[in-house]
Structure formats: C-alpha cells, structure tokens
C-alpha cells in the first residue's frame, strides 16, 4: 500500500494504543494504530499485529469490522509497529443510554449491538484462519491466573508520599477459591473481543445499526460470556448492591421501581433480560442463569483488579489525574459488588 498523506491527527478518546487519523491528498481518511513508544510493562498488551490479524480475518464475514489495509512491523518507519485500516464515518457513544436518540432507534441500536456480538460468537476460528489465535478451552482459568499475578503485584505498590500500600482486593483469597470451581461449561473455540461494549462500536451516521467494532487488542479465543457480561455491565453496575452511585452506574439503567431511576426518560432501552434473549436468538444457545451470574461476578472481580492497577499507578505517580484517583478508589466497591453477587450462593457450593 502506498499512501501520501497531507494531514495527521491523533484521536484522544479511550486509546491504549496511539491512534491517528490520516488524510491523503484526495481527502480520503484512514486510521493508523501503533504500539506505544518506550519499554512496555506487559509483553502481551498492545499487540497491534493481533489486532490486524483478527480484523483482516473477519472482513469476509457478516461481522462489522473496518477494512484492514496493511501491517508494518518495521519499527524504523514510525518508531513502533503499526497497521492502517479504514476510517469509519459514523457515530460513537460514550454513554450506552444513547442520549439524544429517539426511542425506536435507541432500542434498535442496542438490538444491533447484541446481534453483532452474537454474529461474532458464531464464527468458528478455523473457518477464518484463526485456529491458532488462542486455546479453545480453559479461558477462565487462564484469566484467573493472569489476574492473580496482577493483583498480588499491584497490592504491594506503595504511595510515593505516604508509603501506604495499595492493599489487596477485599475477599481476594475467597474469590480465587470460588472462581476456580463451578465454572461455566466450555463452549468450544469462540472468538471473543475482550472489551465488547457500546463505546467500542461505530454506528451508521443516520441508521440504527453497527458498522464496525473497534479496539481488538484484547481479542482471543475464549468464553462468550466474557463479552456478554461486559456488554451488560450498565445494568449490572447500576442495579448492584451494596451502594449507589458509582463509576459506570447510570440512572437510565436503574430499575424503574427505584426512586432514582430515569428509565422513563430513556424509552427504548431494553431490559437486561431482553438483551440476553436477543443474544440467545443470534448466538444459538441458551444462557443458563447460574452461569451468567458466575460470569457477571467474575467480570466485576476483573474490574476490581483493573481499578487496583489504576490505584497502583497512581500510588507511584505513573498516573496523576483526579480521574485516575477516582477510578482507583473503585477497587473495593467493585469487589464488594462481585462478592454480593456470587459470594453467598456460590460460596456455599465451594465450601469457602
């Protein structure tokens, strides 16, 4: 691919891999994603070659992805490996309640987001040359090992000023015992996005449909419930105990029986139960309630480890913003939400 560009600008929203818009001499736009510069903390993160591989593999399927044009692993060009893909001219929403959208479109946009996820999970990796993209079983055990290592390391981080440790996640040892048991049944080799949510989707400029899934850096072969529970998180967090409000909570997703609910102001939003039914229709399998509850608890536990990581980076001043501090404080609340969801019922089964 030969490209003569006239303008280069960096996107600022939600990008762990630096992402740029390129405009060529004919005013056509492209997107360039590259590895961050410098020494990376994780060998498994920021693998733009994997992003390129999965997007390119899905181009000939019915899953909405941008076209991937080329991958360059020569670090002498722009400093790190990068790939170039199609620029999708559409709408992106940080708020999953779709403010400013009419009720009919709001419902169909959620329906198509779920439909798109179901289509992705129907793809057999071997049919798109992704049979070596990840292991077909043991996804949650691998996740548990990864998050255990992270949490133990992050807990030891000490505040640069006070010397106080970040500390361990509440119920940490019990979580490890619980999540090692009673896991959802394996669903075979399934492509998972790894961070499937509304703000990683591009919608058509005027129509209520998805035209592309972005940010594939965490994609792998894994368990479909990981993606589904991530997408359902607005309902989970908004209605979870023991406290409210919190990060990611929205009164639009709060049950209408609650006094703070604003559900009537966001007509068209499906219920969590309706969203699961839509997924089942496309994915082609019934989601057992117990498995969904387990996977939802695991997703909240995963979030608590992520927030602990933000707290650790804030402690050593690798992250210094007030937003980072606020997110770091959510480690405890998210762990308590997870425990309230799975600690009592599942804990008895696991004999904690």
TrEMBL record:
Gene3D superfamilies recorded: 3.90.1200.10, Phosphorylase Kinase, domain 1 (3.30.200.20)
Matches recorded under CDD domains: ACAD10_11_N-like (cd05154)
InterPro entries found in the cross-reference section: ACAD10-like, ACAD10_11_N, Aminoglycoside_PTrfase, Kinase-like_dom_sf, Ser/Thr_kinase_AS
Database matches in PROSITE patterns: PROTEIN_KINASE_ST
GO molecular function, one term: protein kinase activity
Ranges where the Aminoglycoside phosphotransferase domain occurs: 8-236
The protein's name: Aminoglycoside phosphotransferase domain-containing protein
UniProt organism field: Friedmanniomyces endolithicus
């Amino acid at each position: 691919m030969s490209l003569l560009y006239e303008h280069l600008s960096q996107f600022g929203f939600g990008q762990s891999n630096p992402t740029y818009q390129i405009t060529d001499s004919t005013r056509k736009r492209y997107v360039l994603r590259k590895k961050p510069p410098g020494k990376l903390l994780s060998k498994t993160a920021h693998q733009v070659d994997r992003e390129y591989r999965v997007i390119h593999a899905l181009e000939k399927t019915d899953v909405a992805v941008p076209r991937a044009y080329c991958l360059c692993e020569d670090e002498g060009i722009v400093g790190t490996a990068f790939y170039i893909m199609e620029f999708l001219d559409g709408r992106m929403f940080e708020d999953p309640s779709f403010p400013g959208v009419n009720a009919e479109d709001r419902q169909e946009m959620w329906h198509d987001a779920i439909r798109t996820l179901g289509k992705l999970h129907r793809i057999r990796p071997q049919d798109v040359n992704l049979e070596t993209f990840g292991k077909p079983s043991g996804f949650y055990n691998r996740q548990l090992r990864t998050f255990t290592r992270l949490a133990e390391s992050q807990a030891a981080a000490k505040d640069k000023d006070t010397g106080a440790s970040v500390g361990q996640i509440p119920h940490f040892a019990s979580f490890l015992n619980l999540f090692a048991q009673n896991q959802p049944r394996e669903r075979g080799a399934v492509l998972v996005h790894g961070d499937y949510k509304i703000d990683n989707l591009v919608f058509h400029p005027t129509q209520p449909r998805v035209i592309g899934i972005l940010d594939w850096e965490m994609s792998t072969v894994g368990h479909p419930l990981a993606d589904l529970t991530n997408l359902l998180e607005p309902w989970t967090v908004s209605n979870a105990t023991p406290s409210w409000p919190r990060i990611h909570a929205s009164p639009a997703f709060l049950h209408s029986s609650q006094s703070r609910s604003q559900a009537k102001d966001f007509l068209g939003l499906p219920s969590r139960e309706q969203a699961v039914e839509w997924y089942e229709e496309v994915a082609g399998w019934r989601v057992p309630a117990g498995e969904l509850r387990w996977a939802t608890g695991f997703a909240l536990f995963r979030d608590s480890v992520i927030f602990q990581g933000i707290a650790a980076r804030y402690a050593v001043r690798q992250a210094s913003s007030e937003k980072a501090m606020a997110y770091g404080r959510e480690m405890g609340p998210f762990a308590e939400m997870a425990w309230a969801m799975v600690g009592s019922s599942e804990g008895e089964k696991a004999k904690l």
